[in-house]
Amino acid sequence: MSAPTVWIPRDAAALAAGADDVVDALIALAAQRGLPLNLVRNGSRGLLWLEPLLEVATPAGRVAFGPVQVADIPGLVDAGLLDESTALDGLSDALVAHPSRLGLIEALPYFAKQQRITFARVGLTDPLSLDDYAAHRGWTGLDKALAMAPTAVVGDVLESGLRGRGGAAFPAGIKWKTVAAAQAPRKAVVCNADEGDSGTFSDRMLMEGDPYCLIEGMAIAAVAVGATYGVIYIRSEYPHAEATLREAVARATAAGHIGAALRGKGPAFRLDVRRGAGSYVCGEETALLESLEGRRGVVRAKPPLPAIEGLFGWPTVINNVITLASVPRILADGAHAYHAFGAGRSRGTLPFQLAGNIRHGGLVEAPFGVTLRELLFDFGGGSLSGRAIKAVQMGGPLGAYVPQSQWDVPIDYEAYAAVGATVGHGGIVVHDDGANLAGLARYAFEFCALESCGKCTPCRIGSTRGVEVVERLVAAPVSLKGAQEELLRDLCDTMVSGSLCAMGGMTPFPVLSALDHYPEDFGLPRRAAAGEP
Amino acid sequence: MPRGSAPRAPQGPAATAPERELLTQALALHLPDVPAEVPGGSASALLPVLHHLQDALGFVPQPLVPEIAAALSLSRAEVHGVITYYHHFRSAPAGRHVVQICQAEACRANGAEALMAHASARLACAPGATRADGAVTLEPVYCLGLCATGPAAMVDDKLRARVSAATVDDWASRFEGTT
Question: Which residues contact B36 (CB under 8 A, 6 or more apart)?
């Protein structure tokens, strides 16, 4: 008798919703009843409001149930969840009628409307199974890269139009080309997995759900630029992702995919996993390198660029998790297949993350060109509270608040820059009409003061002065607000123009957007602007 | 910057034998990871060594600072600077229970500020502090990557989504039962 395969995610968002308790209950009940259990701990499909999401194999495909709680387990097992007939004939009537049944996972509109490229395997496979990885087109891109001239690999990444997904959107191929051209005895590939932006979790989901994809992407980068050493710098707030990565690196090394010879035939590539220590600014690439070298995460002045002098002074490719994880498919399917998606100069897909006060929060991978309105309503289903959405912060703590008048702008880097907004790492934080944007502007400065590395004055001093000016502006009588507003704008101008990195240079973006689009929250008169709510 | 300065006698209490043993273990584990040809590269083992110590002890004992510095060819100031720069490292033990509540934007959008105020009152512990009886440490944290199902928290290394005031009350009762 063969039991149907059952999947329950090991993703941290599923664990936070109680997935381990559900698994324990299922194992205990199966043992008690003497039923064989064929359980896989997969990554998350990204429909996070439905976690813990359980899937079971049927002849028609994988059927999802969710959210499943411990109390649901006896009922599901009684209804035949673990019976051979589920695998052979499909769901029993009782399972069909179960209140947590959602239907075929891949037919659910939230999932079906996405374009899963980078996240194609996440949720589908057992993240740590090398067999599963190979069976789902794993290593195809690396094998192709190993058969090509390194310059051709760089050429493919250039042609794909892939830009840095960490937020800066710098063309990955140009970075790689610079490192490839640098003459040095040793070079490095560093993965920036310091995903500190609130509202973002795509790096975490990828690392927990498809770690070999990131490893393969880094190996391809190493082949392209001639690097023999790689490091993944992962934040300490992600213990589950770190454990998964360490295990994946150990297994991939032991199996000979990386290590002494890539895929047993290519050059050597050693890969280490290193843990950060709770410093937001270490997501900035030069601060990250300082941290890896054993120092405080203080930003370096550029030049030299890390591509010329990076880790230990070696020419270094430093890219975000999603950037590197997008590379295997680019190599496997060709640059043009990836380039075919997107809008303007923003090619391919972006894994958007719906967060904050949103009914259907989760991960939505879609081509550039999708609008915020589609993401908020077609996918997100509006606010969690059921109240009107007032403001949406896109691109993390350094991203602007996007007012309703801009929700129909197709999302691409240039189109967003043109309206003063940022795409960043694709995090979308929703606030309902209970939000006070002056309070959020104050918080932006507060966070900057907390996390500033202290190297440059505009950021170190400006952040604290910013908290004070926002407080004074809010408290000032109407007649005196003008002077405070002028002071605030002047401070923002200094920070934007004078800071060494994005921490100080972009903290004014949420502040100024709050001031421009929600002046009434500061007690200022609303300006006349077409299309504003 | 001066490197490799000789360790001076620590001003506080000396490191205990088990602490020294742990440091020896950490160095043996992490120093070989440093690429041999990097001048001054041993410093890059600093964060892994500090993590090793804190994972085992819950904090980095101050008396070990000169010894860490000597082993990695760093000054005491450099090691102290790193320990105090990074929010993650502790120089003193935390409470028996550690409650971290996310205060970043996505969780604020779902009431994380009010939740922190409630937790502070219910647990009788100021944010960022350890209660006098050592039972609880309450800390703000800036993003656990659970932004779609906030407010999020981590309690004694266990993640929780959609934390409510009632969840906090449950923790408080549980902590009282175990202290």
Answer: none
Query: Using CA of residue B124, residue B169, residue A67, residue A434, what is the dihedral sign?
Result: negative
Classified by CATH at the fold level, domain A5-108 comes out as: Glutaredoxin (3.40.30)
Q: How many CA atoms lie within 13 A of A99 on its CB side?
A: 7
* Residues of A whose CB is below 8 A from B109: 355-357, 429-432, 435
A130-339, what's its fold?
Answer: Rossmann fold (3.40.50)
Nearest CA in chain B to A385: B110
Where are the domains positioned within chain A? 5-108, 130-339, 342-432, 437-522
Give me the interface pTM, i.e. the ipTM. 0.95
Alpha helices (H) in A18-171, listed in sequence order: 19-33, 73-78, 84-89, 93-96, 109-112, 130-135, 140-146, 150-160
Tokens describing residue A329:
């498919």
Q: Which helix (H) or strand (E) holds B154?
A: strand B153-155
- Name every chain B residue with its beta carbon within 8 A of the beta carbon of A227: none
Per-residue pLDDT tens, chain A, 533 aa: give them: 589 999 999 999 999 999 999 999 999 999 999 999 999 999 999 999 999 999 999 999 999 999 999 999 999 999 999 999 999 999 999 999 999 999 999 999 999 999 999 999 999 999 999 999 999 999 999 999 999 999 999 999 999 999 999 999 999 999 999 999 999 999 999 999 999 999 999 999 999 999 999 999 999 999 999 999 999 999 999 999 999 999 999 999 999 999 999 999 999 999 999 999 999 999 999 999 999 999 999 999 999 999 999 999 999 999 999 999 999 999 999 999 999 999 999 999 999 999 999 999 999 999 999 999 999 999 999 999 999 999 999 999 999 999 999 999 999 999 999 999 999 999 999 999 999 999 999 999 999 999 999 999 999 999 999 999 999 999 999 999 999 999 999 999 999 999 999 999 999 999 999 999 999 999 999 875 544 44
Q: For residue B116, give Cα distances in angstroms to A280, A391, B139, B143.
A: 21, 23, 9, 14
Question: Which class is A437-522 in CATH?
Answer: mainly alpha
CATH class of segment(s) A342-432: alpha beta
Tokens of B70: 């000597």
Domains and CATH numbers, chain B: 17-85 (1.10.10), 97-178 (3.40.30.10)
Phi, psi of A163 (to 5 degrees): -120, 155
Mutation choice for A interface testing from B79, B83, B149 by most A CBs within 10 A: B149
Q: Which residues contact A239 (CB under 8 A, 6 or more apart)?
A: B157
Q: Do B82 and A295 touch (CB under 8 A)?
A: yes
**First vs last Cα of chain B: how many Å apart?**
47
Residue among A239, A294, A430 minimizing CB distance to B43: A294
Q: Which residues of B touch A198 (CB under 8 A)?
A: 102, 104-107, 142-143, 147
User: What is the least distance, in Å, from the CA of B5 to any CA of chain A?
Assistant: 17
Interatomic CA distance for residues A482 and A515, integer angstroms:
12
For residue B105, list chain A residues with Cβ-Cβ distance below 8 A.
198-199, 356, 393, 397, 429, 440, 443
Tell me the two tokens of residue A341: 């998606």
Of B78, B87, B145, the CB nearest to A238: B145
Residue A442: closest CA among chain B residues belongs to which residue?
A: B105
Q: Would the CB atoms of A198 and B147 count as touching at under 8 Å? A: yes
